[in-house]
């Protein structure tokens, strides 16, 4: 099974068939499990056996199938599935850190990730140093002998900065710090984050893994010891578990993940090349374009450029809004990785909470539009984007 290629793992890994021999994974919509005897209950609470369950907050057969499948796909020893991507980020960091610990984090983060690092962790006495994630000298200067963890989005939201995971991991490991990578934009299809040195990998399964806008979910992947001894006790007592129904959606999402992400990425590349140099745009940001600041790194670190683009329109917010309102196929929303192409205005939505100065420092201007490229026909998308740019 470990020899299987990713697409085989994505379809077959982790299956637990019930006595009925069903083909498609069963949804075990049960919160609890019965014991034949009082003694059996006592034993299971003392030490659950392999594939024995107690309560769905701790684990559930459908959730376990999803965990085993994504762990196999990522080459991780273990996984814990969570109610959302943010439950995964929070669970990974809160379970491992304590007052007095030091964390170094890239500054270019999804708003809620920034909130956990900047507002929550610091409230509990964790010291956090933010760096420009693309500048290795800043990582080198910030990482100290007492640094317990480094955190980054391997490809940042929405500016698509690519972080040199191997180099940052090298610096972190010199002082024994754990490398925690939010790998959502890089996707499980294009990134081998563990091979690059990540110790803990986090996904919002809401994004490409579901990929059809149906359910919130997340996952923390890592070593058996980290997941079982650090993450699991924290998660099972604080209640951030994934629901069995969501796990079933995510299992089905994994089956088609490779096909969807590769198709979406090919369309994203086509759009990026076609729109580059457009008179209404000051910039097209896409890791697959030669003028992307980390183009070479992205090509070395990822087997594909991803499904996300950022467009910077001349004319600021008014132009961006006119463009968004003129779109016919592409929807205005804030999910990403979806089958439906989605456009977002980060400055007034996902990154509204930041001050204009912070946004400017992160390169999120008023004319920036984030585009998540879906599964529609590339020609239709190009027509739609072109006519909307004409009206911007
Ligand atoms: C969406 C997202 C999250 C949060 O995931 P949810 O499932 O919405 O909680 C975390 N990190 C990144 C990079 C994201 O894009």
TrEMBL record:
EC number: 2.5.1.-
Catalyzed chemical reaction(s): O-succinyl-L-homoserine + hydrogen sulfide = L-homocysteine + succinate
Any Pfam family matching the protein: Cys_Met_Meta_PP
Keywords, comma-separated and alphabetical: Amino-acid biosynthesis, Methionine biosynthesis, Pyridoxal phosphate, Transferase
Gene Ontology CC terms: cytoplasm
Modification N6-(pyridoxal phosphate)lysine, positions: 207
GO biological process terms held by the UniProt record: 'de novo' L-methionine biosynthetic process; homocysteine biosynthetic process; transsulfuration
Cofactors (names): pyridoxal 5'-phosphate
Domain of life: Bacteria
GO molecular function terms noted in the UniProt entry: carbon-sulfur lyase activity; pyridoxal phosphate binding; transferase activity, transferring alkyl or aryl (other than methyl) groups
Subunit (UniProt): Homotetramer.
PANTHER family named among the record's database cross-references: CYSTATHIONINE GAMMA-LYASE, TRANS-SULFURATION ENZYME FAMILY MEMBER
Function: Catalyzes the formation of L-homocysteine from O-succinyl-L-homoserine (OSHS) and hydrogen sulfide.
Family annotation (NCBIfam families): O_suc_HS_sulf
Protein name: O-succinylhomoserine sulfhydrylase
């Amino acid at each position: 099974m470990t020899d299987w290629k990713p697409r085989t793992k994505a379809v077959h890994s982790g299956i637990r068939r019930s006595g009925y021999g069903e083909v498609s994974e069963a949804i075990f919509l049960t919160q609890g499990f019965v014991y034949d005897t009082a003694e059996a209950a006592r034993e299971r609470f003392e030490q659950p056996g392999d594939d024995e369950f107690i309560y769905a907050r701790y684990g559930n057969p459908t959730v376990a199938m999803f965990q085993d499948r994504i762990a196999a796909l990522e080459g991780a020893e273990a996984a814990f599935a969570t109610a959302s991507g943010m439950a995964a980020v929070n669970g990974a960091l809160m379970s491992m850190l304590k007052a007095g610990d030091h964390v170094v984090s890239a500054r270019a983060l999804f708003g809620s990730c920034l909130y956990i690092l900047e507002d929550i962790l610091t409230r509990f006495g964790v010291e956090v140093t933010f760096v420009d994630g693309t500048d290795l000298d800043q990582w080198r200067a910030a990482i100290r002998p007492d640094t317990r963890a480094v955190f980054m989005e391997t490809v940042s939201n929405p500016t698509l900065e690519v972080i040199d995971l191997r180099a940052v991991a090298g610096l972190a490991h010199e002082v024994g710090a754990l490398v925690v990578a939010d790998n959502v934009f890089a996707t499980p299809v294009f990134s081998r984050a563990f091979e690059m040195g990540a110790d803990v990998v986090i996904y919002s399964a809401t994004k490409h893994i579901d990929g059809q806008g149906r359910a919130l979910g997340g996952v923390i992947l890592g070593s058996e010891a980290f997941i079982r001894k650090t993450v699991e006790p924290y998660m099972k007592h604080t209640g951030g578990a994934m629901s069995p129904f969501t796990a079933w959606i995510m299992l089905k999402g994994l089956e088609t993940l490779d096909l969807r992400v590769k198709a979406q990425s090919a369309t994203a590349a086509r759009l990026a090349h076609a729109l580059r140099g457009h008179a209404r745009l000051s910039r097209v940001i896409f890791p697959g374009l030669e003028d992307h600041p980390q183009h070479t790194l992205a090509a070395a670190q990822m087997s594909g450029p991803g499904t996300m683009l950022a467009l910077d329109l001349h004319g600021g917010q008014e132009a961006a809004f006119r463009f968004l309102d003129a779109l016919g196929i592409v929807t205005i929303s804030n999910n990403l990785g979806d089958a439906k192409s989605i456009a977002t205005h980060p400055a007034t939505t996902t990154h509204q909470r930041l001050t204009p100065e912070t946004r400017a420092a992160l390169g999120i201007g008023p004319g920036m539009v984030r585009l998540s490229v879906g599964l529609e026909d590339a020609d239709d998308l190009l027509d739609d984007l072109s006519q909307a740019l004409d009206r911007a």
